[in-house]
Amino acid sequence: MSMGGNIRAARRAAGVTQVELAAKLGVNQKDVSRWEQDKQIPSADTLARLCKCLDVSADGILGLKKGR
């Protein structure tokens, strides 16, 4: 799965919407949408906060290993 697909899957597994995730991260909902569509990637700092918010590893989001 792509990085965007991994972000989408983690967000859905956490039970949050794009709008809710964007608010928690202090970004625009369109940014979350672009990440999930592989049109843009989050910065390293945002990726770290995203992982904490969704309780997933960076390896999982980056597709380096399966699972949470």
Instruction: Note the gap between the termini.
Output: 14 Å
The backbone outline, from C-alpha atoms, is: globular
Number of helices: 5
Largest sheet report = none
Average pLDDT confidence is 94
**Rg (C-alpha, Å):** 10 Å
**What percentage of the residues does DSSP assign to strands (E)?**
under 5%
Low-confidence stretches: none
Helix content: 55-70%
Total count of strands? 0
List keywords for this structure.
68 residues; mainly alpha; 5 helices; globular
Brief summary of the model shown:
This protein is mainly alpha-helical and 68 residues long.
Task: Describe the 3D structure.
By secondary structure, the protein is an all-alpha fold. The chain is 65% helix and 0% strand. The protein contains 5 helices and no strands. The longest helix is centred in the first third of the chain and has 12 residues, at 3-14. It starts with a helix and ends in a 6-residue tail after the last helix.
